[in-house]
Backbone:
């Protein structure tokens, strides 16, 4: 009787809300439904009623079990069958929400155009897999099989992979078997020298602790962990750029030419991707991408000889606006007197969100960090040497949309509001060209953010 009572009470809270959703009824009273259920069951017991119309295999097994053994045993069998049905149905839905390459998705670091062109090509060696839902023994099988398929000989030769970014931002739980599977996946990847990078993971959360308990984060496993997806992308891009600049330095040595001041942001974690086998498909692909990029832009290898004799900020103007304007150094030379040189120590705040713009900045050296406060959360981007800062609010005369501070000691050239006013009055042609370039710079940034 206890089992029958338990089944009758459990039946209503499960089925009544589902029936309300199917019929579009929002005003549900479970207490009233329980009382009505008891009354109708009593009347049905005295007078008889129509049985369940759908004869599924689960119902057949439960009825046979109840008839052969016991009512209580039948209930337990039904619970077991329900669990099995849940596992089967959940396993059919893949835990992989999306898969794409680093060619499509890039970090929000504001980089020079030549770096961006190289990274779009090198990004093919970065594979991003976004996971979601609850990871358990039923759903992890598909993830593991996908990983194994990527590093099989034939697939790996067609598409060599250097980094795999697993994004856990939509994962809300993981069981022990799924956590153990990631250690197996990492061992498989390491045999191919593929680095597993995990993003969107709070190591102090339930998912992070589960992965830590199986030893995935041990130093010998080489797994890189980042709290957000953008930081993981930045880490991969910085390692690609090390190959790019080592190749560029080799060309400079052949030409006996000094280097320009383009910089690569430093990673929080050091990783060297140079392989012992120089002729590997991945290394050849990066070398080819670097050679192609440098060939398209000869000034990246050998800056024009005239640049060496120029005083700042003219070389900075030419470098920052390269590819965005057809004007030469004679044109931009007239704008140099309107820029003021400023130095900022690390940690200095240049401006805050909501401030009235008082300058447009060109970063000569160092690195800036722009932080945005949005309803969806905080968002940041890094600005490296040779890139502009604050152009859109300044030229559109709107308030600042971000807080910018110096990540390192910086040297920047600033066009103040008063100087901009003088420039528009005395050099209207240069002012119009600056507005055009600023719009192109904003387009570049939007492409980077939305990628």
Residues:
């Amino acid at each position: 009787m206890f089992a029958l009572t338990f089944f009758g009470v459990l039946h209503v809270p499960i089925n009544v809300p589902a029936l309300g959703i199917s019929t579009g009824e929002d005003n549900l009273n479970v207490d009233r439904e329980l009382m009505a259920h008891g009354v109708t069951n009593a009347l049905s017991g005295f007078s008889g009623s129509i049985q369940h119309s759908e004869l599924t295999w689960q119902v057949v097994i439960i009825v046979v079990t109840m008839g052969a053994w016991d009512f209580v045993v039948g209930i337990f069998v039904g619970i077991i069958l329900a669990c099995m049905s849940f596992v089967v149905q959940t396993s059919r839905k893949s835990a992989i929400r999306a898969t794409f390459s680093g060619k499509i998705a890039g970090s929000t670091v504001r980089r020079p155009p030549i770096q961006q062109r190289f990274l779009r090509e090198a990004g093919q060696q970065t594979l991003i897999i976004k996971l979601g839902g609850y990871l358990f023994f039923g759903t992890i099988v598909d993830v593991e099989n996908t990983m194994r398929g990527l590093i099989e000989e034939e697939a790996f030769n067609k598409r060599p992979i250097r980094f795999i970014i697993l994004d856990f931002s939509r994962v809300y739980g993981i069981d022990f078997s799924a956590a153990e599977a990631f250690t197996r996946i990492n061992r498989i990847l390491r045999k191919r020298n593929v680095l597993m990078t995990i993003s969107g993971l709070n190591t102090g959360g339930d998912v992070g602790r589960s992965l830590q308990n199986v030893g995935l984060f041990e130093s010998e496993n080489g797994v890189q962990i980042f709290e957000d997806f953008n930081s993981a992308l930045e880490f991969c891009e910085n390692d690609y750029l090390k190959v790019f600049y080592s190749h560029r330095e080799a060309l400079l040595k052949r030409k006996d030419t000094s280097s320009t001041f383009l910089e690569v942001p430093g990673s929080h974690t050091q990783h060297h991707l140079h392989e012992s086998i120089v002729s590997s498909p991945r290394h050849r692909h990066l070398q080819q991408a670097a050679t192609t990029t440098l060939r398209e832009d000869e000034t990246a290898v050998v800056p024009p000889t005239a640049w060496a004799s120029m005083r700042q900020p003219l070389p900075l103007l030419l470098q920052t606006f390269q590819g965005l304007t057809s004007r030469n150094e004679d044109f931009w030379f007239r704008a140099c007197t309107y820029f003021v040189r400023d130095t900022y120590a690390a940690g200095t705040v240049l401006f805050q969100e909501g401030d009235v713009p008082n300058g447009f900045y060109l970063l000569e050296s160092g690195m800036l960090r722009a932080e945005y406060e949005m309803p969806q959360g905080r968002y940041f981007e890094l600005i490296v040497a040779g890139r502009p800062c604050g152009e859109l609010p300044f030229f559109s005369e709107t308030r600042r949309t971000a807080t910018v501070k110096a990540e390192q000691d910086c040297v920047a050239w600033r066009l103040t509001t008063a100087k901009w006013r003088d420039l528009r009055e005395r050099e209207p042609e240069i002012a119009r060209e600056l507005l055009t370039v600023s719009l192109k710079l904003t387009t570049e940034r939007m492409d980077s953010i939305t990628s």
In short: The first strand starts at residue 96 and ends at 101. The chain has a mean pLDDT of 83. DSSP finds 18 helices and 13 strands in the chain.
